[in-house]
């Protein structure tokens, strides 16, 4: 067997191992984070009784990622991405455990929640570009679409299903056990990521020199529209951040329901997302990636506009919202990851995270203030209008460059920011 074939086989085995370990690691980490943030949001709302107070909690989570994501993204492209993920998980485990210790010694719940979630966000600013860089590095390009559907299904279903349980568990046991679980989830995630092993060696690239006709036209590499693809993906982050804030207030204040309904609604959204992610493979065969990213987002926004009409409408619409969100989210993620060169994927996803959360912070403050000044449904409709304008505008700006790429052979495509 030749050296090239041996290295190729090692890379294929490494890719399969990475797929098997990164998916459960994503599920465990996001489930733990969901327990933490949902319990913290309930504590803060009961302490302050305003939408903006909950909004500031999510802003405290977002500010470090906005400030540090780009810098950490550049670091990710220079340092071992696997060990960066492990280090971020272990630091997060210690930080998460500090919050229940603070509560046990009688510290104020709202202050402890703000500080702990702020510190966790600092390590998340490193983990996010490192984990995406690790995925691009270890998963073969032809497997990215399928892997992303599995990874997003695991991560988002873990977040939504854990959020649904958190509403009930806070009532039964209080918030402290959920914070302890979050600490343990980081440790388990670090073990799974470490088990992936070292990066396999790549087969050497052999350039084949052939005679060419000097008069023949030269193919010009097509520039990938990375910045616009990043905005398409970041649009989902805006929706997640704002919706988490205003949904809590809609249920507890507008509909005057208990924390149990947060659990029911998140469970319904989780079911919709899981079904959507599971169906992504079949749906993506019928639609182009860009069309699926846009149509999935618009379908989610239609459901978003229906949700504040009545709590029955909320429970009826949110599974369909989860299904549509899955289609748009996975398609946008796959488009961006395929367009990103491996040596720059850390800074691209770090920058995307910073932009998405930065816009999310501004939207959270504006729409939370609108909800407190008028009524919560206006915040839902304002969010739908904002996200709709972004996705439609981005789609029209992408139509021409993506059409040009489809007319060129794959070997002349060059992933560069445009």
Automatic annotation (TrEMBL):
GO terms for molecular function: transmembrane transporter activity. CDD domains: MFS_MefA_like. It is found in: Cell membrane. Its main location: membrane. The keyword ATP-binding does not apply. The keyword ATP-binding does not apply. It is a multi-pass membrane protein. SUPFAM superfamilies: MFS general substrate transporter. The chain crosses the membrane at residues 21-47, 53-72, 84-105, 111-130, 151-173, 179-197, 230-252, 258-280, 292-310, 316-336, 348-367, 379-398. GO terms for cellular component: plasma membrane. Keywords: Cell membrane, Membrane, Transmembrane, Transmembrane helix. Pfam families: MFS_1. This is Transporter.
